[in-house]
C-alpha cells in the first residue's frame, strides 16, 4: 500500500463481527467513507490460550448441534464462528487520525 504524504493507515482487529460492525458504523457516521470489514482466520500461537478457547467453542457448538438433532436448523454448519477475526483497514488524513483511532480503540482488540 502506498500512502500519499499526510496520510496514515490504521489496521484494527476485532474478535467479533458485532464489534467490527459497531466500529465501522461509527467511523462512517464520523465521515470516514472507505470502511470495509474483512473476515480473516484466527491464528493460534504456541502457548496461547486461544487454542484452548477455540476447542471449547467447537465442543459447545457440537453439543448444540447434537441437542438440535432431528430439528431443521435452516443453516449449514461449515465451521465454528470462533475460527475468524475481523479486520478494518482505513486510510485517513493525518489530521483525522486521532478521531479514527479513538473510534476503533473502543471496539478493537488490537490497533496498529
Descriptive terms for the model:
alpha+beta, Alpha-Beta Plaits, 112 residues, 23% strand
Structure description:
- There is one protein chain.
- The protein has 112 residues and is of the alpha+beta class.
- The protein has a domain at 7-44 and 84-111: 2-Layer Sandwich (Alpha-Beta Plaits), CATH 3.30.70.120.
- Helices cover 38% and strands 23% of the residues.
- A four-stranded antiparallel sheet has the order 2-3-1-4, covered by helices on one side.
- The longest helix is centred in the middle third of the chain and has 18 residues, at 50-67.
- It is globular and about 40 Å long.
- It starts with 6 loop residues before the first strand and ends with a strand.
- The model is unreliable at 71-81 (pLDDT under 50).
Amino acid at each position: 500500500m502506498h500512502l500519499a504524504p499526510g496520510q496514515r493507515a490504521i489496521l484494527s482487529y476485532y474478535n467479533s463481527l458485532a464489534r467490527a460492525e459497531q466500529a465501522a458504523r461509527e467511523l462512517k457516521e464520523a465521515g470516514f467513507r472507505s470502511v470495509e470489514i474483512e473476515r480473516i482466520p484466527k491464528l493460534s500461537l504456541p502457548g496461547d490460550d486461544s487454542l484452548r478457547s477455540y476447542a471449547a467453542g467447537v465442543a459447545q457448538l457440537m453439543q448444540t448441534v447434537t441437542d438440535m438433532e432431528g430439528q431443521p436448523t435452516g443453516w449449514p454448519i461449515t465451521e465454528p464462528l470462533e475460527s475468524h477475526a475481523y479486520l478494518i483497514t482505513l486510510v485517513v488524513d493525518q489530521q483525522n487520525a486521532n478521531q479514527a483511532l479513538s473510534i476503533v480503540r473502543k471496539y478493537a482488540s488490537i490497533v496498529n
